[in-house]
Protein backbone atom coordinates (compact mmCIF):
# COMPACT_ATOMS: atom_id res chain seq x y z
CA UNK A 1 0.00 0.00 0.00
CA UNK A 2 1.51 3.33 -1.01
CA UNK A 3 1.13 6.51 1.04
CA UNK A 4 -1.71 7.91 -1.09
CA UNK A 5 -3.71 4.70 -0.62
CA UNK A 6 -2.92 4.73 3.07
CA UNK A 7 -4.07 8.35 3.37
CA UNK A 8 -7.29 7.46 1.59
CA UNK A 9 -7.90 4.63 4.07
CA UNK A 10 -7.10 6.88 7.08
CA UNK A 11 -9.52 9.47 5.69
CA UNK A 12 -12.23 6.80 5.32
CA UNK A 13 -11.73 5.82 8.97
CA UNK A 14 -11.97 9.46 10.00
CA UNK A 15 -15.22 9.82 8.07
CA UNK A 16 -16.63 6.77 9.88
CA UNK A 17 -15.94 8.56 13.17
CA UNK A 18 -16.98 12.03 11.96
CA UNK A 19 -19.50 11.48 9.13
CA UNK A 20 -20.49 15.15 8.98
CA UNK A 21 -17.02 16.21 7.83
CA UNK A 22 -16.74 17.36 4.23
CA UNK A 23 -13.61 15.61 2.94
CA UNK A 24 -13.27 18.22 0.19
CA UNK A 25 -12.77 20.99 2.71
CA UNK A 26 -10.54 19.04 5.08
CA UNK A 27 -7.10 20.64 5.43
CA UNK A 28 -4.42 17.96 5.69
CA UNK A 29 -2.07 19.96 7.92
CA UNK A 30 -4.59 21.53 10.32
CA UNK A 31 -5.66 19.75 13.49
CA UNK A 32 -9.16 18.30 13.41
CA UNK A 33 -10.24 20.34 16.47
CA UNK A 34 -9.38 23.53 14.57
CA UNK A 35 -11.56 22.47 11.63
CA UNK A 36 -14.60 20.82 13.18
CA UNK A 37 -16.00 19.45 16.42
CA UNK A 38 -13.65 16.56 17.25
CA UNK A 39 -13.45 15.60 20.90
CA UNK A 40 -11.59 13.01 22.97
CA UNK A 41 -14.18 10.30 22.29
CA UNK A 42 -13.79 10.91 18.57
CA UNK A 43 -10.02 10.57 18.97
CA UNK A 44 -10.48 7.29 20.85
CA UNK A 45 -12.81 5.95 18.15
CA UNK A 46 -10.36 7.09 15.47
CA UNK A 47 -7.53 5.23 17.24
CA UNK A 48 -9.73 2.11 17.49
CA UNK A 49 -10.54 2.38 13.77
CA UNK A 50 -6.84 2.63 12.91
CA UNK A 51 -6.14 -0.40 15.07
CA UNK A 52 -8.84 -2.43 13.34
CA UNK A 53 -7.76 -1.37 9.86
CA UNK A 54 -4.00 -1.63 10.24
CA UNK A 55 -3.45 -3.81 13.30
CA UNK A 56 -1.41 -1.15 15.08
CA UNK A 57 -1.64 -0.32 18.75
CA UNK A 58 -2.16 3.37 19.48
CA UNK A 59 -1.49 4.12 23.14
CA UNK A 60 -3.32 7.05 24.65
CA UNK A 61 -0.02 8.91 24.99
CA UNK A 62 0.20 8.92 21.17
CA UNK A 63 -3.25 10.40 20.54
CA UNK A 64 -1.65 13.80 19.88
CA UNK A 65 -0.16 12.27 16.72
CA UNK A 66 -3.68 11.61 15.44
CA UNK A 67 -4.76 15.26 15.73
CA UNK A 68 -4.74 15.95 11.99
CA UNK A 69 -4.90 13.97 8.77
CA UNK A 70 -1.25 14.53 7.87
CA UNK A 71 -0.11 13.67 11.40
CA UNK A 72 -2.25 10.53 11.49
CA UNK A 73 -0.95 9.30 8.13
CA UNK A 74 2.65 9.86 9.24
CA UNK A 75 1.94 8.01 12.49
CA UNK A 76 0.44 5.02 10.68
CA UNK A 77 3.32 4.89 8.16
CA UNK A 78 5.86 4.89 10.99
CA UNK A 79 3.90 2.37 13.06
CA UNK A 80 3.61 -0.01 10.13
CA UNK A 81 7.30 0.37 9.31
CA UNK A 82 8.34 -0.39 12.88
CA UNK A 83 6.16 -3.50 13.00
CA UNK A 84 7.49 -4.92 9.73
CA UNK A 85 9.78 -7.88 10.21
CA UNK A 86 13.29 -7.43 8.88
CA UNK A 87 13.70 -8.64 5.30
CA UNK A 88 14.99 -12.18 5.03
CA UNK A 89 16.46 -13.98 2.12
CA UNK A 90 14.38 -16.81 0.72
CA UNK A 91 17.41 -18.23 -1.05
CA UNK A 92 19.05 -21.32 0.33
CA UNK A 93 22.71 -21.99 0.11
CA UNK A 94 23.39 -24.82 -2.30
Explain this structure.
- With 94 residues, the chain is mostly helical.
- It has a single domain, classed as ACP-like (Non-ribosomal Peptide Synthetase Peptidyl Carrier Protein, Chain A, Orthogonal Bundle).
- The protein has three helices and no strands.
- α1 crosses α2 and α1 crosses α3.
- The longest helix is centred in the first third of the chain and has 15 residues.
- The protein starts with a helix and ends in an 11-residue tail after the last helix.
How is the quaternary structure best described? single chain
The total of beta strands comes to: 0
CATH class: Mainly Alpha
Count of all domains? 1
CATH topology: Non-ribosomal Peptide Synthetase Peptidyl Carrier Protein, Chain A
> Any guess at the CATH architecture?
Orthogonal Bundle
Estimated share of beta-strand residues: under 5%
Q: In terms of per-residue confidence, which ranges show pLDDT below 50 for 5 or more consecutive residues?
A: 86-94
Number of continuous helical runs: 3
- The gyration radius over C-alpha positions equals 16 Å
Amino acid sequence: MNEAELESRVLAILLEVAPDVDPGSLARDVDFRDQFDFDSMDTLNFAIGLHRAFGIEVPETDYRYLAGLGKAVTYVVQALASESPPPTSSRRAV
